[in-house]
Amino acid sequence: MRIAEDRGGQIGHYLQVFAALRSAGERVVIDGNCLSACTLVLGLIPRDRLCVTHRARFGFHAAWMPDVDGRPVTSPMGTQALWNIYPVPVRRWISRHGGLSRRMIYLEGRSLNGIAASCERPAQRVHLRASPRRSSSSRHYAARPVRYIPANAASDRR
Prior knowledge:
Blueprint: E1 2-6, H1 11-24, E2 28-35, H2 41-44, E3 50-52, E4 57-60, E5 64-66, E6 72-74, H3 76-85, H4 88-96, E7 105-108, E8 117-118, E9 128-130, E10 141-143
Parallel strand pairs: 1-2, 2-3, 2-4, 3-8
Antiparallel strand pairs: 4-7, 5-6, 9-10
């Protein structure tokens, strides 16, 4: 699956989608914006099945819910849920950049080193798997195909 322009949405939806991808063994490529609840991919997809391109950008903020008038109100419980799912390196980065608040903070470029592998460096390609046709002394590696899925229309409601 390739994520390129995902603006996020409800946390529950992303928990379901990423859990299904994890169970299916899917490889996930971040190739653009992965904002809000989309950032849960960093904690829900194993590091060996996640990579980022030079266009990858993660946007973090506190979780929120609409009040009775439709205005956003920070959700401490939702924010804690996000925090609990993020791996330690992501939490450290967020803390160094002011924490989760109403303001979006962006993780991109060299700051992703140590958080997610690059899809563009052959030595760091973690999406390769050994083909069973060869002996272990002469392994042949083949990339798994990437399935393109457009961003969910629900993510445009924000």
